[in-house]
Amino acid sequence: MAKRSDGKSRVGATANGRVHVIDHPLVAHMLTEARDRKTRPDRFRRLLAQIGALLAYEVTRDVQLDLVAIDTPMEKLRACRLRLPITVVPILRAGLGMAEGILDLIPEAHAGHIGMFRDEKRLQPVSYYEKLPLSIAKGPVILVDPMLATGGSALAAVQLLKTRGCTDIRYLCLIASPEGVAKLTGEFPTLPIYTAAIDRELDERGYILPGLGDAGDRLYGTTD
Ligand code: PRP
Ligand code: URA
After folding, report:
1. Which of 124, 129, 168, 170 is most solvent-facing, going by the fewest CB within 10 Å?
2. What is the pTM of this model?
3. Which atom of ligand 2 is nearest to the CA of 146?
4. 139 by DSSP, 3-state: which?
């Protein structure tokens, strides 16, 4: 088993209850590049899509399969196909970056959108858009947002999905703060959380340290 620079054993995914930290070497490598302030928006967008797809591999590990009859060029076969619907729901804006990669991996998935931004003074989510497929409650929902900071946005989004009848919700982010994880698991103890990293802390403005800065701004170049 590979060793990390801190001497600890590396595994593909470590799980603490319902919290899964996906520390696969490819994910760790790409996350470092995404964190680097020198990484430009075009590269940053590509990285978030790629990491989204890699994490989706773990998030969907236990989804249901159906047996279907097909003809190979050689003979008849009963083989596995994903049971649909599976719905990917990014929290706008920044969730779009990772959702693109997941939808590339599962083109049959539906997409829903939840528009929310964080009021930077009160650190409370402000909802501005919602468009969810009618069938959303019939299958797993992958709720995507790169940053789980105070946890307010994730909490509001999970609550919204529950009011729409969703019972199989999986929350996927790139970087979580310990505070955000505590808030989300405190409110929803059975919610599975998948992340590439749990960082050290939040700063006084509610930003994750060391983090990667403002994910939406870095995706879409809105800092200048
Ligand atoms: C960011 C991020 C989360 C939220 C996390 O979005 O993408 O949605 O902040 O913060 P919280 O855990 O404290 O709620 P932001 O509000 O900056 O909107 P944007 O994606 O449109 O940039
Ligand atoms: N939103 C971000 O984009 N980054 C953070 O570190 C916290 C909230």
Report:
1. 129
2. 0.93
3. 3
4. coil
